[in-house]
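Now for one protein, fold included:
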Amino acid sequence: MRYRLPLIMLMMLVAIWCAPLQAAYIPISITGYNQDMIVESVALTGASLAGTATTASMDVGASNSQKSWYEIGYNTNTGQTTTGLPSGGVTVASEAGVDHSFRLADDYTAANAVLLDSSHTTASLTLSNPLAYSSLSVLTSSGHGPGTIGYTIHYADGTTSTGTFNSNDWFNSSTTAITAHGRVDVQTGAFDSEGTSNPRLYQADLAVANPQKNITSVDLAYITGQASTHTAVMALSGVPSKTIFSSGDSIAAYNSSGTPSSPTAEQVSNAIDGDINTKYLNSNKTDPGLTVTNDYQMSVVKSLILTSANDAPQRDPASYVIQGSNDLSGAWTNISSGAVPTFTGRHVSMSIDIANTDLYSHYRVYFPSVANDATANSMQIAEVNLAASQILRDVTGPGTIVTVYNSSGTPDPKEPTEGIAKAIDNDPTTKYLNFNKVGAGLTFELSQAFTVQGVGIRTANDSPERDPASFTLQGSNDGVNFTDIVTDMAIDPISTRFYNRNYAFDNDTAYLYYRLFFPTVANDATANSMQVGEIQLFAVIPTPAALPAGLLMLGLAAMRRRSH
């Protein structure tokens, strides 16, 4: 028996799978700085400076004389103590728009910029945490500019894409991200342009040709400029493509103790609505946070993204915990925890890198402490999201071709009311029942070959003794010869009905056909059949431009699932 329903528009699929939650440029941790071009706040002053704090300057490059940058706090002249660049490692919002945030180098006593000029023609920025981005932006300016810089983006699969950007002169140009309000001669220590609207760093956006591929590095190359042009690149930011949370997801407020308490206009849903002008406020400060569940997606989280709310800095989170689950049984696994750096302003976005290699469907993020517990009456945050290096999505749905299967004997499905089509109809209240319990299952013919790395199984409405107790997954590209991917993976018994559990495993091969069957049931002595409410196959999704027409039906399926 085979089933197939009509296809729907590809545009829906692309919009759901590829649109980031918010078009915010988040700081990216990088290595590759080749020069020290910023005088740190504790450096020697006056003539004693004499090139001791830098290795290059904006005016003359590696000759390391004349004017360059200094850190806030270095200039102690009356009225000038707040001039200079932000302190090392601090995240700041761009003056050109709060959708761009940048983080300068952590240490101003070491290399803190990339210098590009006629003598330093190439450099490379390596991402500490490779992720996918829909767009990148550099923090840059040029002494005696402007300068034209070429870039090559390297993706994790070995492919590249290229482009160019313009680095404006550090005086009087537009798209200003940071104004230093002063500069210093790195040899004499003499200050210049104090309290003015110069010098400046600018944001320059870089197009990304493959937004679903993880980026590993960005090569930079000096192309044109005046003979005396010296370009500096001081930070990299980007719009993450593989964000996990989005408006419409199933979200709940969380506290480890007590009841969450939020004003009507500041509910937990505001934390994932993509609008930095709204916020989630929880007056219960006992580990306040949120839980987001998604039975139809699995992901490997690599970054926590936070955006500060509109006011009251004392309420900002000061620490975080991220937990993951694949079955919502109550046993959450700790993924990462640590300090949240201090927000330097309102509506500032930051990212915190996470060391994680495990796939989860459901996530909990909470904040054990706030910036000032003594004065804060609550915890608040404008946006919370997680960025992933890998996202697996369900590639089955009502349009998928499925065939009933048993590893032994003749299949005996209860057609049509509880036939195999019910296992992929996106309706958890229906079920697939097979009276032949011996290896009961089904074979999927997908619209194209996918690399499946996860299986989701939902319990049916009644009779827990009929639940699968183990599963085997096989793959094939001809529909005849199948290769084992997972064999006899245990499914722990559970009495809860309509309960979804997801299982991850290793698989590097794409198959067109998949066979999933259940060698055992929960209680073979009392069960008269095998039954299952819903089945999902989680797979790596290729770049949207390469998706064939046969995947169109999945867009609408995803829309329906998000609404549950």
